[in-house]
Amino acid sequence: MSPGRTAVKAVSALTDAVLPRPPGPRILIYHQVDAGLRRQMEVRLEDFRRQLDWLSANRQVVDLGEALVRWAEPGSERLVVLSFDDGYRDTYTTAFPLLHELGFSFTLYLATESIETGVPLGPAEKAEPLSWDQIGTMLASGLVTIGAHTHRHRDLRQLSVDEVDEELGTSDDLIESRLGVRPAHFAYPWGFWSPSSDRPVTDRYSSAALAGSRRATRDLEPHLLHRYPVQLSDGFRFFQARLRGGLRLEEIVRRRLKGYKGP
CA 150, 76, 15: angle at the middle one, nearest 5? Predict the structure, then answer.
């Protein structure tokens, strides 16, 4: 991990320690586990195991629907939702056996084009997508909630309302035809909301998720859920810090670098 990234995380953890802790359940974002690509959107297998073991001993992992129902309960910040974005094959081959062993529920937010075509989701073979059969096996375990993540994983800030509708409709139809379920939950690609996507998303789904922890309100806003991205550089030390406060300063930096000014 670079000294600059370590410094931002350390300062973010210190800042979170003096700010009020965000209320409500913690929704974690994972992408790849032990992919070996050294992208920030993956975690090492040893870190993932340690994170899951710590959650098993110290928190209550629940599915997304239960988290939404229990949002305003006292102590709900100890509830944790695990979510996996895009649909990488290592979710099935590497993460799922550990999740199944612990009986941990999780949400799969699927970008359907890569799953349908088999084209890798990233710059290398190690970013290969899930197959529909693999998703079906996980779904049959009773641990999985299927969510939508658009068809082509496009930045919705760049699309018109009609283009957003097409992205969502294609994704929903493929998921329903291949898996027999219609997704009720959605995650914005890159975590970025846009005015053009607000109505199509709200009309189609009972919840929609962004990225990062900024809000300090206990009121549930189901179509503006903030999730905490678990990164390669978090290891275990900053994983615990992220659960406490979300590393809010780091998220502010990320948003500014990406030019995002939404909720």
Answer: 85
Whole-structure pTM value: 0.93
Structural contact between residues 83 and 106, judged by C-beta atoms closer than 8 angstroms: yes
DSSP string over 125-183: GGGPBPPHHHHHHHHHTT-EEEEE--SS---GGGS-HHHHHHHHHHHHHHHHHHHS---
Strands (E), the chain: 26-30, 32-33, 42-43, 60-61, 79-86, 106-110, 144-148, 185-187, 207-209, 228-229
Cα–Cα distance between 80 and 61 in angstroms, integer? 5
Three-class DSSP category at 66: helix
Q: Which helix (H) or strand (E) holds 102?
A: helix 96-102
Looking at domain 3-258, its CATH class is alpha beta
Q: Is the pLDDT of residue 200 over 70?
A: yes
Residues 6+ positions from 132 with CB-CB distance below 8 Å: 115, 116, 178, 179
Residue 224: strand, helix, or coil: coil
Average of pLDDT values for 119-123? 83
> CA neighbours within 13 Å on the CB side: how many for 217?
9
Does 215 have pLDDT greater than 70? no
**Sign of the Cα pseudo-torsion (88, 196, 165, 204, in order):** positive
Collapsing DSSP to helix, strand or coil, 259 comes out as coil
Q: How far apart are CA 56 and CA 116, in angstroms?
A: 34
Kindly state the tokens that stand for 107.
Answer: 């949400």
CA 229 to CA 247: how far, in whole Å? 10
